[in-house]
Amino acid sequence: MNPTEREELARLLPSPGEPVLSSDRQSLLREQLMREIAVHPNTVVRKSTWRRAAAFAVPLATAAAVTATLLVGGSDTPAPDQQAVDLLNRIANVAAARPTTPVRDDQYVYVSTQSTDDVDEYGVVTLRRDDWQPVDGGRSGLARIKILSGRDNPYLHDGDMKLGRDPNVTYFRELEALPTDPEALYRKIWDGTEGEGAHEEAALEEIGAMLPSATPLPELNAALYRAAAKIPGVSVVRNAEDIAGRKGVGLTFKDRDEQATWVFDRKSLKFLGTDEEALLDVGIADKAGAVPGN
Questions:
Q1: Which is it for strands 108-118 and 44-45: parallel, antiparallel or unpaired?
Q2: Quick check: 177 pLDDT over 80?
Q3: Cβ of 38: how many Cβ atoms within 10 Å?
Q4: Contact predicate 56/177, CB 8 Å
Q5: Closest by alpha carbon to 160, among 290, 27, 10?
Q6: DSSP assignments along the chain, one per residue
Q7: Cβ atoms of 189 and 230 closer than 8 Å
């Protein structure tokens, strides 16, 4: 496929307001993002919805396809798997016990991930992406791409790009203002996603999207896991592995041919990411481009 054909396909992508994209369209959107980095490394671009939710929301979003009555209840709603509920509650307890770090408005939330991308005839590329999002959402953020393997792709290479303010991103201060009671949080997310396509999928996507950036907020992080425990269809994967090769215990959804798996360290129960995108690090940085602790 030549570049002109790829540009034409990119124009067929849905608008960022749609909460769910097919895997093929996600790949096209990734390719367009990488092309922006390659051609205009200093251009201000907005993060798209697929990046906001990333792979962390995928297993939750697929649950809506299994059960239409998911968040609204009803006599036909299946009971959640008790092993999965118990595991999520244990994960929530560990998350709640983590120390709270004071965060200033002039700082940035740092999130580092690793994933792979298969772009047409150029094959599989493994890349690391580091994001710095402003705590208050009032300034530009930064995304830094580092290609780890597959450098023969002309559209993908190391580079930085500015991230402008995006209404699709929930910034740290907005996360901080959310309720930490699981039921209240669950209801607020449900009410806040009304009208965004398939309501159940939009609400579940929102839960998954918050997990990485909510890590520095122990009470909220725990509440998100407890809210996820209310969702039927989730089951435990005894031997799971994230895309970076780290092994642990997982959570996924039953009866799905294409299912992503959340992966947690078996001993610490730390969230490692998924089998599609690994969460390498989360922290608070004093400036965009600075890695916490370095």
A1: unpaired
A2: yes
A3: 16
A4: no
A5: 290
A6: --HHHHHHHHHTSPPTT-S---HHHHHHHHHHHHHHHHH-TT-EEPPPHHHHHTGGGHHHHHHHHH-TTTTT--TTPPPPPHHHHHHHHHHHHHHHHSPP----TT-EEEEEEEEEEE-GGG-EEEEEEEEEEETTS-S-EEEEEEEEE-TT-TT--SEEEEE---TTS--HHHHHTS--SHHHHHHHHHHHTTTSSSHHHHHHHHHHHHTTTTTT-HHHHHHHHHHHTT-TTEEEEEEEE-TTS-EEEEEEESS-SS---EEE-TTT--EEEESSEEEEEEEEESSTTPPTT-
A7: no
pLDDT tens digits, one per residue of 110-136: 999 999 988 777 788 999 999 999 999
Q: Would you list the domain boundaries of the chain? A: 1-294
pTM for the structure as a whole: 0.72
Residues 6+ apart with CB under 8 A from 184: none
